[in-house]
Amino acid sequence: MQQIDLAFFYCLIFPAKIFKKDRAGYILSSQQAQDDETNRPFGDFMAVQLKKSLSLEIQKYKASHNKGFSFMF
Predict the structure, then answer these.
(1) DSSP codes, the chain
(2) What is the distance of C-alpha 20 from the center of its chain?
(3) Which one of 7, 27, 42, 62 is at 20 to 30 Å from 19 when CA atoms are compared?
(4) pTM of the model
(5) What angle, 0 to 180 degrees and rounded to 10, lies between the N-to-C axes of helices 40-66 and 2-13?
(6) What is the pLDDT of residues 4-33, one digit of tens each?
């Protein structure tokens, strides 16, 4: 239950996506955190996912910005 709470906590601060190809790592880090009784493995995994997610969003923004599309009115 603690891993779910931690995942929810991370999602409330930053919307992190768990990519399909990283699903096994998500489960493994969750199990390791539970076995080791520490949140570190799960937190590290979520940090990597957040970085990956934000990097993709930045790339999408730059691509749309280069095309002349803007969110500004």
Answers:
(1) -HHHHHHHHHHHHS-----GGGHHHHHHHHHHHHHHT-SHHHHHHHHHHHHHHHHHHHHHHHHHHHTT--S--
(2) 12
(3) 62
(4) 0.67
(5) 30
(6) 455 555 554 566 788 889 999 999 999 999
